[in-house]
């Protein structure tokens, strides 16, 4: 559990858990801190993939199926125990959606709310186009791929940090390309509400397809900023308040 999940503030009396799925090339350092910002009714778990942080010595995951299987097997007891919601940003959106589909299909479990951010809807042509991009070997070409897959954001200037980020990003991009959302899966819509967020200065994402993936309500919010708009304190505050209200209303 501690290997897969970062939880900076345990809240045994919480009525719901928010499971956060970070963006490509990153770890748990940002989203896990949300655990201190939500009130006591919501406990925050942040997913940590192999190849980073305390799992640095582990090989990177090779396919999304193995990631989904690890997350569901480790968290199944917790997910059955009390209501849960998902937040995914960029690459994390696809990972969270893959986990949600698996939970629905295999265990009949469903989040009380799906919060998706800065990503194409997985039933869109734009998603399929990004998925089929050929990943390059060189660092300079990788920069272009990071901008295509990751949107508009400032990259680290420190050379060692850039190299580590680039390596992790490339492995996460390979992982993303193993995502497979079959049409049969898409015929099993969710009943929970879906909220989609994006940055005003980021590239345009095809997000409208989320409406077809649930019988619940869908809503869309554009916040000021680039691909990592969610790191701005004012946006972070908006997200926390909005997600708290949405989760509590959905219980």
UniProtKB/TrEMBL annotation:
GO biological process: lipid biosynthetic process; monocarboxylic acid metabolic process
Occurrences of domain Thioesterase (ranges): 17-244
EC id: 3.1.2.14
GO molecular function annotations of the record: fatty acyl-[ACP] hydrolase activity
Family affiliation: Belongs to the thioesterase family.
Name the UniProt record assigns to this protein: oleoyl-[acyl-carrier-protein] hydrolase
Species name: Emberiza fucata
């Amino acid at each position: 559990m501690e290997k897969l999940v970062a939880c900076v503030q345990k809240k045994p009396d919480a009525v719901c858990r928010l499971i956060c799925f970070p963006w490509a090339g990153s770890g748990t350092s940002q989203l896990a801190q949300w655990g201190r910002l939500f009130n006591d009714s919501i406990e925050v778990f942040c997913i940590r993939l192999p190849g980073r942080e305390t799992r640095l010595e582990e090989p990177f995951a090779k396919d999304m199926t193995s990631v989904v299987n690890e997350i569901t097997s480790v968290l199944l007891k917790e997910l059955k125990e009390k209501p849960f919601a998902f937040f995914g940003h960029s690459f994390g959106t696809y990972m969270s959606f893959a986990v949600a589909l698996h939970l629905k299909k295999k265990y009949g479990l469903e989040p009380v709310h799906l919060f998706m951010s800065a990503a194409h809807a997985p039933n869109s042509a734009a998603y399929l186009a990004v998925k089929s991009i050929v990943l390059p070997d060189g660092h300079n070409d990788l920069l272009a791929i990071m901008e295509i897959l990751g949107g508009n954001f400032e990259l680290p200037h420190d050379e060692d940090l850039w190299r580590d980020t680039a390596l992790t990003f490339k492995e996460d991009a390979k992982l993303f390309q193993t995502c497979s959302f079959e049409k049969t899966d898409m015929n099993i819509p969710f009943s929970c509400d879906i909220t989609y967020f994006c940055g005003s200065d980021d590239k345009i994402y095809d997000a409208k397809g989320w409406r077809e993936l649930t019988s619940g309500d869908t809503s869309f919010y554009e916040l000021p900023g680039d691909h990592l708009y969610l790191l701005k304190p004012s946006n972070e505050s908006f997200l926390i308040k909005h997600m708290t209200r949405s989760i509590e209303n959905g219980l």
